[in-house]
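Run log // design_07
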């Protein structure tokens, strides 16, 4: 077959067959995404042999995993189901200097930090395959025959993946190992990849690893994880996580292994390497056996060590050691992804704490209650609030919602909240604060766009050719000033593109407390106005974000037909805390599931 099985020049041709293409980020989730795309394409094609579908998923999994591990760049996947029934898959990365490892060519030196069985699975299943180098890119392709390969069938794993133990049956020993390591092992590896890639906790990843290996691939295994702060290539000095086919042997085996943890490795070779047999701790039947260690490496960084053991004189066949090495690569990717997620979650939590007040101010003559529920627990929310003293017996409050989430939202909140406080304490009125904040957002967005354009020009690109530059930063904001006095609280407020505040009277009447105005950061030189309402004892002011008003149940929203006002009217006679709790409960109950947007509401009640 021509080495350019699905070449660029042919992609534009209208030829027959079912074809598709996807570009995936070089992340641990890429193999699972590629398998899902290919599975959907084959499910929609007529008369595809089941064996061919299984082979295609195994091959695309191996090729994309290889690209992620060895190149770490964006991955492009092309596939073609020919009219003859043959299936062609092509995986391209952007690291042409790193050749994929071909296990069939022997154990030569390689310039990458990680080693796996590479293309052994591909060579087993494909009728032809090859590697194509282009300027700035490397492509590995494979062509699968219409009926699938002649690899022996094995028991299929449980596709539901309800527990890791159901992924693959326990293989028989000796000659049965090689039989099981046909199609059953390939399916096991693909499904194990899906299971591991979906985990965001490294402890759960290691627990699943033990369940996947024991007893089907080894009698026992252990995993040591290295502290990220430890010196690169240092010893695995963390606690051992141990699994044994007999639970009665786990603690004794753990004690024995922790006395002699894996030492500093020779480079970053993934293994397998011989490991001392723990001996009598495994009982009379386990006095002799074979143990092998594998370094868990992802992105050129050591993350830990996996050790497997098998009792008896036979040792491990090469097929088992190769399969565990492939599994180890996926375990390392999953641990790396979990650690990256944990780092990001920590950074986001610290950032979120910095974007919100440590405590809301207590206002004489008023009670306040707050509900704040970010939808994404792992990143900065787009909603924010504040309630602070502004001097001269004045208190100010704000409830805002930034367009988008994550770092972009954090930038806007980090800009808006301090300026609100500064302008309020400088004595600016409500309308003037919104005027100046609107101009500040527009100036900041212009400066960011200019900086991005200069960077594009310096890189040789035309600034108008990219749609990735900074976008206008919109902010909806409800901002007000409270002045307690004899007989109530004077509230001056304005709403800029935000859900309007509502006032609940002691008798259950509800009225709107402001009129709608333009979002902040949209119109240059916009002039905002404010209005004043008197909150008498027992009056309650409710301020919410659109996570409340736009909560969905099918095609309906919570605020359809003045739904929020009707819900608030039912809170007559309740204090601020119970009003907030009631509205929160009604919003949650309305959708039936977890909210899909950030939710914030503030209740201010005059005493």
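design_07 sequence
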């Amino acid at each position: 077959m021509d080495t350019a099985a699905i070449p660029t020049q042919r992609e534009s041709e209208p030829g027959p067959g079912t074809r598709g293409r996807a570009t995936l980020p070089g992340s641990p989730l890429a193999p699972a995404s590629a398998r899902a795309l290919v599975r959907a394409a084959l499910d929609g094609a007529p008369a595809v042999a089941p064996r061919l579908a299984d082979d295609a998923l195994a091959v695309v999994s191996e090729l994309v995993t290889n690209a992620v591990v060895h190149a770490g760049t964006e991955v492009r996947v092309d596939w073609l189901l020919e009219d003859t029934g043959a299936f062609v898959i092509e995986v391209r990365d952007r690291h042409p200097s790193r050749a994929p490892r071909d296990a069939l060519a022997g154990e030569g030196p390689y310039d990458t930090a990680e080693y796996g069985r590479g293309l052994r699975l591909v060579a087993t299943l494909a009728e032809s395959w090859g590697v194509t180098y282009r300027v700035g890119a490397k492509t590995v392709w494979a062509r699968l025959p219409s009926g699938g390969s002649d690899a022996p069938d094995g028991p299929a794993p449980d596709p539901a993946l309800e527990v890791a133990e159901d992924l693959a049956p326990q293989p028989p020993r000796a000659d049965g190992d090689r039989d099981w390591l046909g199609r059953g092992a390939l399916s096991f590896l693909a499904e194990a990849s899906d299971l591991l890639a979906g985990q965001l906790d490294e402890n759960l990843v290691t627990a699943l690893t033990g369940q996947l290996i024991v007893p089907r691939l080894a009698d026992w295994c252990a995993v040591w994880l290295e502290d990220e702060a430890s010196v690169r290539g240092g010893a695995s000095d963390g606690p051992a996580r141990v699994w044994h086919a007999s639970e009665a042997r786990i603690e004794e085996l753990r004690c024995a292994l922790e006395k002699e943890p894996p030492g500093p490795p020779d480079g970053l070779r993934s293994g397998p390497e011989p490991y001392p047999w723990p001996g009598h701790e495994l009982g009379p039947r386990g006095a002799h056996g074979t143990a092998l260690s594998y370094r868990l490496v992802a992105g050129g960084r050591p993350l830990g060590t996996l050790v497997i053991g098998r009792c008896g004189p036979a040792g491990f066949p090469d097929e088992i050691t190769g399969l565990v090495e492939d599994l180890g690569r996926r375990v390392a990717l999953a641990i790396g992804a979990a650690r990256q997620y944990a780092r990001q979650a920590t950074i986001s939590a610290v950032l979120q704490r910095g974007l919100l007040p440590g405590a809301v101010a207590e206002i004489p003559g008023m009670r306040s209650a707050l509900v704040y529920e970010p939808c994404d627990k792992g990143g900065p929310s787009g909603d924010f609030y504040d309630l602070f003293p502004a001097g001269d017996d004045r208190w100010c409050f704000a409830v805002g919602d930034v367009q988008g989430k994550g770092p972009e939202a954090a930038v806007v909140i980090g800009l808006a909240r301090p300026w609100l406080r500064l302008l309020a304490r400088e004595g600016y009125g409500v309308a003037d604060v919104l005027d100046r904040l609107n101009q500040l957002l527009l100036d900041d967005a212009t400066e960011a766009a200019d900086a991005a354009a200069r960077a594009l020009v310096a890189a040789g690109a035309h600034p108008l050719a990219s749609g990735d530059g900074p976008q206008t930063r919109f902010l909806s904001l409800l901002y007000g000033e409270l002045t307690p006095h004899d007989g109530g609280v004077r509230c001056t407020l304005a709403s800029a593109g935000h859900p309007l505040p509502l006032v609940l009277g002691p008798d259950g009447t509800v009225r709107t407390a402001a009129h709608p105005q333009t979002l902040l950061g949209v119109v240059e030189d916009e002039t905002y106005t404010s209005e004043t309402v008197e909150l008498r004892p027992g009056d309650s002011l409710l301020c919410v974000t659109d996570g409340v008003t736009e909560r969905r149940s099918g095609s309906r929203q919570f605020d359809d037909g003045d739904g929020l006002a009707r819900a608030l009217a039912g809170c007559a006679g309740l204090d601020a805390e119970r009003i907030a709790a009631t509205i929160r409960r009604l919003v949650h109950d309305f959708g039936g599931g977890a909210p899909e947007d950030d939710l914030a509401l503030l209740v201010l009640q005059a005493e």
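The CA atoms of residues 200 and 340 lie 9 Å apart.
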